Amino acid sequence: MDTDSSQCTTPSSSASSAGSLSGSAHHSLNMFRVEQLDVAASGGADLLAPVLSDLANTAIQRTEGHFLQGELYSTASIRELLEDESGCYMVALDGGKPAPHGVVGMCRIKLPSVSGGDAHLSTVVVKEESGRRGIGTAMVESAVAMCQAAGCARLGLHFPSERKDMQAFYKARGFVWSHEEPMPDKYRPLIKPAYLPMGLVWMFRSLSPSELQ
Q1: CA-to-CA distance for 78 and 46, rounded, in angstroms?
Q2: Cα–Cα distance between 178 and 182 in angstroms, integer?
Q3: First to last CA, the chain
Q4: Measured over all CA atoms, what is the biggest interatomic distance in the chain, rounded to whole angstroms?
Q5: pLDDT in tens, 155-168
Q6: How many CB atoms lie within 10 A of CB 71?
Q7: Which of 107, 150, 167, 204 pairs with 136 at a CA distance of 20 to 30 A?
Q8: Is the CB of residue 145 less than 8 Å from the CB of residue 15?
Q9: Would you tell me how many other CB atoms lie within 10 Å of the CB of residue 140?
């Protein structure tokens, strides 16, 4: 399940990036920067995978532990995603510290296989102690800028319908509700039985230059 555990009450903070899969944004006031994760320069997938999987699972458990059972991301699954060239991770680095130990937030962007298609945003997570600094917003805006520069039509995401806070968070950042679908079979074992009626909510943000202004 692509889910999100960013701080949904963070103050607004803008970010920009350039290039189809590159770019960074500095936020000197809050002492963090958002940039595309360079896997090789950061020690490789074997070093990064346990750090990122722990960050993701800890953040998701904090916000969704009441309806989840088990962990969403294994070290092996994160390693596969790090090695998947159809997408990339954006990371928020605290106080100028490099990855992997400086990572306080992350999200994953998957680009479409054809030009002009829709990109997908997932696993937007922020460490609890780094909340309320605009990190979640900065990562989302960096993802928007990257995908717009890559020629994508829209940036989409989905999350459990139980997370009403996330719908408000993304609506405030330009995403529009699209539809709700039943929970896919591959995710159902991760949901506590009492919550299985929940579905997945899809939202999209247009990447048309006129609408980004």
Answers
A1: 10
A2: 14
A3: 31
A4: 45
A5: 999 999 999 999 99
A6: 16
A7: 150
A8: yes
A9: 27
Instruction: Give residue 55's region: left, alpha or beta (phi > 0; psi -120 to 50).
Output: alpha
Euclidean distance between CA atoms 175 and 204, whole angstroms: 5
Burial of 167 (0-12, 13-18, 19+ CB in 10 A): middle
Instruction: Assess whether pLDDT exceeds 50 at residue 12.
Output: no
d(CA 88, CA 68): 26
With helix as H, strand as E and coil as C, how does 35-52 read?
EECCCCCCCCHHHHHHHH
Rounded distance, CA 183 to CA 198, Å?
Answer: 7
Amino acid 124 reads V
Would you report the helix, strand and coil content of the chain in percent, each value rounded to 5?
A: 30, 30, 40
Instruction: Output the six-digit token pair for 81.
Output: 């995603």
